[in-house]
Amino acid sequence: MAAQSPAKVKVTQIQQVCIVCNDIKKTMEAYWNILGIGPWAVFEFGSLRIPDLKYYGKPAWGRYTGAVTQVGPIELELFETIEGASVYQDWIDENGEGLHHMKFLVEDLDIDRVNREMESLGFPCIQGGHFGTGLKNQFGYYDLMKPLKAIWETSNRTGGKPIGAAMFPEDPDTASPARVKVTGIKQVALCVKDVIQTAENYWNILGIGPWEIRDWGSHVLYDRFYHGKPSWARERIAHAYIGDLELELVQPVEGDSVYQDWIDEHGESLHHLKFLCDDIDEVSRLLTAQGFPSLQSGHFGDPREKAGGFNYINIPPLHCIWEPVHKPKSLPVEPVARIPSA
Question: Which of 108, 155, 297 is nearest to 221 (CA)?
Answer without folding.
Answer: 297
